[in-house]
Task: inverse folding
């Protein structure tokens, strides 16, 4: 007795040609871009906590031996790198030219990132003008995190910083997180 196998038409094998024919290059490019942005954000969040910030000398020093200037410089550098990587990925999505929607969304994201960068720079400049030696501001959606170089903050200083963030970034004072860093 012979056993004859026949293919079940409901059980098809996965084919990359069919996948790309159905979904196209645009979907792959957008998915890749999202993955790269997520990876850049995760690296930006986790590396500074582990002391991975690299001073200008090129030697890795423990975070405890870094000065305050190194902290603020490293934080600014990490923020800039993450944003540059995100903008580069968005430009790649635009350059592929596979979809009008993806290009419009990428341009909107680039504009939002640029606006946030300008707002952060304004906040930092105005806080330094109030007499603080150094600070860094990070806008994240509808909240602002501000690290100020000082031992402690007086209530009137907290109010001034929250007012600066409110007027420059349209963020409610309760969504402004201020951290003193000595």
Result:
């Amino acid at each position: 007795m012979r056993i004859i196998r026949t293919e079940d038409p409901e059980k098809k094998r996965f084919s990359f040609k069919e996948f790309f024919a159905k979904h196209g290059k645009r979907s792959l490019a957008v998915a890749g871009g999202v993955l790269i942005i997520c990876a850049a954000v995760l690296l930006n969040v986790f590396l500074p906590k582990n002391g991975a910030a690299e001073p200008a000398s090129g030697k890795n020093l423990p975070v405890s031996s870094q000065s305050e200037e190194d902290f603020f410089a490293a934080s600014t550098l990490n923020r800039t790198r993450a944003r540059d990587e995100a903008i580069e990925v968005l430009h790649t999505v635009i350059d592929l030219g596979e979809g009008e929607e993806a290009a419009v969304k990428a341009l909107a994201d680039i504009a939002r990132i640029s606006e946030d960068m300008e707002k952060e720079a304004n906040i930092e400049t105005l806080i330094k003008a109030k007499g603080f030696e150094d600070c860094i501001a990070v806008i994240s959606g509808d909240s602002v995190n501000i690290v100020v170089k000082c031992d402690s903050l007086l209530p009137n200083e907290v109010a001034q910083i929250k007012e600066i963030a409110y007027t420059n970034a349209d963020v409610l004072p309760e969504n402004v997180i201020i951290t003193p860093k000595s």
About this structure: Confidence is low (pLDDT under 50) at residues 49-65. Residues 16-49 form the longest helix (34 residues).
